Amino acid sequence: QLQLVESGGGLVQPGGSLTLSCRASGPYFARYAMAWFRQAPGKQRELVASITETGRTNYVGSAKGRFTISRENANNTVTLQMSNLKPDDTAVYYCRGAIYWGQGTQVTVSS
């Protein structure tokens, strides 16, 4: 079982950057593929980026070229670096590992 806790959300101006972190507790973190999802108001939750156990990454849609997902198994952490943020990036961002979800962290992009 994994327990996931996200941090790093906040308010940022368009064009700015934020780094989200997800800290996992529980055994065998390195064996899990991890992912970041987001859910904007009135919309379905959507995949943003994922990273496999071996470090292979995948990005979806507008995250390509602006976001970077990485993991540090020694610290049970997966990170999402976001740059050139746009108002459409406003959402609650969730970390997921296998069937486990974090509680989410709010990202608001607004001037």
What does this molecule look like?
The chain has 111 residues and is an all-beta fold. The protein has no helices and eleven strands. The strands form two sheets. Strands 2, 4, 5, 6, 9, 10 and 11 form a seven-stranded mixed β-sheet that branches. Strands 1-3-8-7 form a four-stranded antiparallel β-sheet, with no helix packed on it. Strand 7 and strand 8 form a beta hairpin.
Rg result: 13 Å
Average pLDDT, rounded to a whole number, is 96
Backbone shape: globular
Ends distance: 40 Å
Overall structural class, as computed from helix and strand content, comes to mainly beta
Strand content: over 45%
This entry's quaternary arrangement is single chain
Question: Runs with pLDDT <50, length 5+?
Answer: none
Order of helices and strands: EEEEEEEEEEE
Summarize the biggest pleated sheet: 7 strands, mixed
Features:
four-stranded antiparallel sheet; seven-stranded mixed sheet; 111 residues; globular; mainly beta; 11 strands
Question: How does the SSE layout of this entry go?
Answer:
Layout: E1 3-7, E2 10-12, E3 18-25, E4 34-39, E5 46-51, E6 57-59, E7 67-72, E8 77-82, E9 91-97, E10 100-101, E11 105-109
Parallel strand pairs: 2-11
Antiparallel strand pairs: 1-3, 3-8, 4-5, 4-9, 5-6, 7-8, 9-10, 9-11
TL;DR?
This protein has strands spanning about 5, 10, 20-25, 35-40, 45-50, 55-60, 65-70, 75-80, 90-95, 100, 105-110.
